[in-house]
Amino acid sequence: MIINDSAVVLWRRDVGECDRRAVLLTENHGKLPVRFGGVNRPAGKLKALSEPVVWGEYRLFFSARSPAVHVVGGRLESVFPALRNDLARTMTAFSLCELAMNLCAERAPSPDKYRLLCRALCILDQGGHPWLETAFGLKLLESAGYSLRDLPVPPAESGLWQALHESELEGLGAVPWRPAAGRRFLQVVRDHVEAHAERLLRAPAVTERLDNFASSLLPQKESVPC
Is 0.85 surpassed by the pTM of this model? Predict the structure, then answer.
């Protein structure tokens, strides 16, 4: 049986010489492990559709004799070109996809989570906002049944905390940015996702290593003897 479904690629890995495995967040089938056959051949098709942070419509072959799902066609909706030209935004996009991968159930339809991810990636492609990853994570946790809305926070930051839960992603510009609170809130989100998924998130660690490497390339100030 072949079914068309819209999806975002959350993760992919090469398998053997020519194939790729990937995980899609689909609109109508939830999180779905799939296989792209032959995409790494010189004349292979669908390679672009198998890359992470790609949004498209996929032709999916479901077999009655096997649990494996094969991608046999599709068309691109967006590759989010603007965010791919910015390393920081690219890493944020990977982080959004990793959060979704850890909080979405396999083969359980969840169109609200799919649409939330699509909206977040579109906003990021248009420039993003410092609160985006935190707000996305809070809404994703809430949608998965793990709301942090009533989590105790310092009184001076309770208004921000509630605003991040109540504001639409498109309205985050109205929420004042406070860097210290932003770092704390994002860590809270990541800690809770790791606790529920029972695994460490990889994207934050990669981002930290890239930041440290970039800092090491900056010219060092020479000490001046007194």
Answer: yes
